[in-house]
Amino acid sequence: MKKIFLIALAALLLVSVSAACASPATQEPTAPTAQEPAAPAAQEPAAPAAQEPEAPVAEQPSSQERIVFGISFDTLDHPFWLADLAGMESMAEELGVELEVRVAQNDANVQNQQIEDLLASGAQAIICAAKDNVAILQAVQKCNEMGVPFIYNDRPIISTDDAIVAYGAATDNFGLAKMGWEWVVEYAKGAGFEKLFVLELHGDLADKNAIDRSDGFKEVMAANPDFIELVQTVPTEWNMDKSLAGTTNALQSNPEVNCIYMHSDLLLEPTISALRQANRYLQIGEEGKVILMPFGGSGTSMKAVADGYAEMCFIMDIYNTGRLCVDGAYEIVVNGRVFTESGVDPGFILHKDNFEQYKHIPYGAFE
């Protein structure tokens, strides 16, 4: 009996010790499990739960603060301006900007009214290719009154005391004209021309671009008085009929003309017509060849260069100008930038030796 009692007592003690050891083992994992996961579990869902209802509220200002730029064109009836608009649309898409486009159809008064309408509709910037760089100052003043930046597009507009232009982008027409004429002087001397007798087809006299193109030419002419002579200037007003009549008459009265400088390759087709009438539309190397110098970069100019009828073309990268305008407007409206200088496209000279390399850049590539 004593032996049985001792065995029972030992078994009882073994159970007690096992129970004492098991209790902490069960409690230690349970306590951290109940406390450590519990805090994150209570906090992490709580944060999203508080944020999720606010997410649509955070998105509302972005829809209310959508960025809209008003675009005012004199005309869109030419590939030059279509390439310009394509550049704007490209940059606008990259920046998340909406564009509202208006076309004045060659009417300065209509253009001013359309800009007022764009302002009334909430446009946060106006980008404008002006019909008349003086008449447009009325629209610039209106923009100033409403605190909306006015950006000129391709056709420079000079600020006045009461009409401040915030920014603008354009080709350096003076610099490009000078660059091209320096190229032609070197080319003509190398090709055996003793002297250049120039017919200048002048653009609209109210267009600063045309003035700069003429001034760039005249600077090179002044530097080469024995090699360049201006025979006649025809004021075309960018009109093809006036250009055709003026060129035809000039070739008849001045048969010594051996170089025609066009302020725009819009005037190239009437120039070709006039030369054909005079049996002088010839390829490079043919006797009696008239050097052709179109300005811009149209498909007609590119074909004339590729086929050897035009020696060169002044190329304006108008697609890039459009991008510069939208980017500048964005910097002003969104980032509060104040520009002290305008955007400049230096342009380049397209000729037979670099044609394949650069043929994708001229606006004629967008026709």
Based on CA inertia axes, which overall geometry fits? Answer: elongated
Mean pLDDT: 85
Q: Give unreliable regions as ranges.
A: 1-63
Spatial strand order of the main sheet: 2-1-3-4-5-12
Number of strands: 13
Quickly describe the structure.
The chain has 367 residues and is of the alpha/beta class. It contains 14 helices and 13 strands.
How would you characterize the overall build of this protein?
With 367 residues, the chain is an alpha/beta fold. It has two domains: 66-170 and 318-344, Response regulator (Rossmann fold, 3-Layer(aba) Sandwich), CATH 3.40.50; 173-315, Rossmann fold (3-Layer(aba) Sandwich). The chain is built from 14 helices and 13 strands. It has helices at residues 2-35, 38-43, 46-51, 55-64, 79-95, 108-120, 137-146, 173-190, 208-223, 240-253, 268-277, 299-306, 318-335, 355-358; strands at 68-73, 98-103, 125-128, 150-153, 167-171, 196-202, 228-235, 259-262, 291-293, 295-296, 313-315, 343-345, 348-350. The strands form three sheets. It has a six-stranded parallel β-sheet, sandwiched between helices. A four-stranded parallel β-sheet has the order 7-6-8-9. Strand 3, helix 7 and strand 4 (150-153) form a beta-alpha-beta unit. Helix 8 packs parallel to helix 9 (208-223) and helix 10 runs parallel beside helix 11. The longest helix has 34 residues, at 2-35. It is elongated.
